[in-house]
Specification:
Strand content: under 5%
Number of strands: 0
Shape: rod-shaped
Structural class: mainly alpha
Largest sheet: none
Helix content: 40-55%
Number of helices: 2
Length: 144
């Protein structure tokens, strides 16, 4: 069995693809005369199950490919946003570190020293957010 999104080989019991993270939708029922959701018997002319209301075409591959493409695009957008926010934090921390370092040399204000020292962990947080955004973008576009 292959993933509907990235075509990577997967096991039938898997819930998600290990390559692209798309949810795997597979009908355990191969009988065309029974409901794909509840396995209730359906007449050949029925389009929906009388018991649960599910469509006979519940597991159409085209529908799921569209969903996983949309979730992939959404993940890429979140990755871009995270990257921009992370880069802004890093730039802010760098500018703050430089300006407070200059103020430390000229002023004798102890509060500036704490602000100067705290710029480093803020910069590290910014780097972590930036890297998370980059990895999110990379993983959302993964095609083997």
């Amino acid at each position: 069995m292959n993933c509907q999104n990235c075509k990577r080989e997967i096991n039938e019991e898997d819930g998600f693809c290990g390559g692209c993270g798309s949810q795997i939708f597979a009908s355990v029922n191969s009988d065309p005369n029974s409901c794909p959701s509840c396995l209730n018997e359906m007449l050949p002319d029925q389009t929906h199950c009388k018991k649960c209301g599910s469509s006979r075409d519940l597991f159409k591959k085209e529908d799921f490919a569209e969903v996983s493409t949309a979730s992939s695009k959404k993940s890429k957008v979140y990755g871009i946003i995270l990257s921009i926010v992370g880069l802004a934090i890093v730039i802010f921390a760098f500018i703050n570190y430089q300006s407070t370092g200059e103020a430390l040399r000229t002023d004798n204000n102890p509060g500036i020293g704490l602000q100067h020292v705290m710029s480093v962990p803020i910069g590290i947080v910014g780097l972590v957010v930036l890297v998370a955004g980059l990895f999110s973008m990379r993983d959302s576009g993964h095609k083997p």
